Structure formats: structure tokens, C-alpha cells
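User: C-alpha cells for Ribosome production factor 2 homolog, please.
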Amino acid sequence: MMKIKTPKKGKIKRALEKRAPKLVETGKKTLILQGTKTSGVLNSVLTEIYHLKKDSAVRYTRKNDNIRPFENGGVTSLEFFSQKTDCSIFVFGSHTKKRPNNLVIGRMYDYHIYDLVEVGVENFKSMESFSYDKKIAPIIGSKPFIVFVGEGFENVEELKHLKEVLLDLLRGEVVENLNLAGIDRAYVCTAVSSNRVFFTHCALRLKKSGTVIPRMELVEVGPSMDLVIRRHSLPNDSLRKEAMKTSIDKPKKKEKNVSKDAIQGKIGKIYVPDQKMGDMNLPNEAKGVKRERREAKLNRDRNGPAAKKQKENSE
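Assistant: Done. Predicted C-alpha cells:
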């Protein structure tokens, strides 16, 4: 017989339920890690990406020499780290002579590689290199604007793919209602050419306009960099169709006294109320009662005084 292990502690059970598939998924977590060799620029890029997504990111600072996202067999450790940290997006940094300041941004589906975009970082400026009023600094965890400027994001395949990945990386948790007063920053991505994107991070400053609606200004707070697209890998059609599948059914209400088992299937408990036989309405004279009465009357007629007197007269 198969033995299915079930969690005994409530903490473990809640953790498994949190990772289980849901009709409405929560925000995606980001895994940030590095390869065998990195540069000072790349370390600063990874640190500042982690700072921007500190509320929903995991940062690994140790070197990983067996991770190569675009090669077969080079994603085993990456998928293991993704399952361990429950992260569906990763940012991997590496530095080689052939590909300096290399950044790979990828998405996972069911803890396996879904798609990849490889970019090179150029003209990097950190947050510390910008001078601005600290009072307008964006708050970590706030909801940002994301702006894509340029026709290339609609026409060029590589830029369209980069746009999808950056949206998943930067937008955080998807919400239905939004308070505009809580939006204090914006990510601006400008398509300079067919393979180059200028990325910058700005704070929103509210100015008086003489009307009820304030005038908004963008103040660059960093980081800013040029992203040069090098390689990208798209998912196949079957995997994309499976990943894009959504449920149109509403979440079902909890069924009482019903449980499911992997071996026995659906199991239900039935509670039968007490049967009060004394209060049941029965017919006044059943067939058995009538037959007994007829037999008793016949016996009385045979053994009664009239029968005895008739017997004596006949003698």
C-alpha cells in the first residue's frame, strides 16, 4: 500500500498551503544570485535591484560555478534554489571576457525555466551618484508606474520579450484598487535602438498647479543604466498555453464533512439522527392485528358457554 505523508505541525501545513496553486496568485518573489566571477559594477546592479524589491526578493551572495541558464544541464541548481525559496523570477549576474557585466533575467513555471533574456549593463549610475532631496525618496514597497517609451516595444521581438520580463520583475503584486496618493515613483524604459534600452528610476514630486489636480515632476533618483540585449529564449507554444491557462470557475465553498484522499478518493461522513419509534404515526389496525383478533374470536366461539350448552344438548 502507498503511504502518504501528511504534515503534523500546523506551521508546516500552513507553509505548504501557502505554496500550493491558487485561483488568484499572489505577487511573484525574485531570486537574485551571481556566478563564479562578477565585477564591481555588476555587484552594485544586483544590490540595487535587491534594494528596489526588498519586500519580495531573496539575495544570495555566494558564488555559483555550476549555473549556466542557456546551457543544457546548467539550470539544475537554479531550479533547486527557485523551489527552495518559492521564487518565480530570478536575476543572475556573471562577468566574462566575452560577455562583460552580463545580466540574465528569467521566469519560472512550476519551478522550471520558462523564458530567458540576457542583457549587458553599460553606463551604470548608482543611487548614490544622484543628488536629490531625501524627503521625496520613494518608499520601499510602494506601487510604481512603469513607462515604456518607443515603438520598438511593439514591433521588435526582442524588445517585446524584454518588456514582458521587466513588467513581471518590477510591478510587484497585482491589485484591483489603487490609491494614487501612495504612488511615489516610476520606472522609465526608453527604446534607444532595436537592441538597446535606457532604464532609469524616478521619484514623483507634486507641485502646485493652481487647480485641484497637482502638477507632477519626475526627479531621477537612480539607478540608471543601458541594457543591451544579447540573447533571449522564448517558451514553446505548448508550455506557453499551459502557463497562460486561467480558471474561470469561482472558488468553491467548503464542503462540510467531506474530505479527499489520494488513494480512496472522496470520503464523506454521514450523520443519522436518532429514530424515535414511539413518536411514529402507525395505522390503527394492521393486518397482523386483524388476523389475531379473528382467531381469538373464533376460539371464544368454540370454547365459549354457548358452544358448551349446544354440546350438552346434543348429548
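User: Anything notable?

Assistant: The longest helix spans residues 287-303.
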